[in-house]
Amino acid sequence: MDKPQTASFIGKRWRGETTLIKLYWRDMLIVGSVINLFTGFIALMIAAQGGELWVAATVHFATLPYNVFLVLAVWRTPGRSTVMAWTSLVWLGAVTVL
């Protein structure tokens, strides 16, 4: 029986089986940033429309576990450069605050 696609996605990144280029550039900087911009926009719209602040905050921070996972996966990947490791932390701070 085949493994579920999600387990394969998470497992490959956690074990460092995905190329660093794919993990860093595609998964984190492009896809991760787009997801964070989208949820940030939705959270801003909720707050602007007079919605509950806790709902807006929940939407904004809903991607935090995924973001932390991506940063940890970058740090765990063999052959990572110091620049990629530290810029992944800067990215995490930026998408969390913004």
Keywords:
mainly alpha, 5 helices, 98 residues
Short synopsis of the structure:
The chain has five helices and no strands. With about 100 residues, it is mainly α.
Task: Describe the model.
With 98 residues, the protein is mainly alpha-helical. It has one domain. Helix content is 79%, strand content 0%. The longest helix is centred in the middle third of the chain and has 29 residues.
What is the strand and helix layout of this fold?
Layout: H1 5-14, H2 20-48, H3 53-61, H4 64-76, H5 82-97
Helix pairs in contact: 2-3, 2-4, 2-5, 4-5
Q: Please tell me how large the radius of gyration is.
A: 15 Å
The overall pLDDT, averaged over residues, is 93
Tell me the span between the first and last alpha carbons: 42 Å
Note the beta-strand portion. under 5%
* Number of helical stretches of at least 4 residues: 5
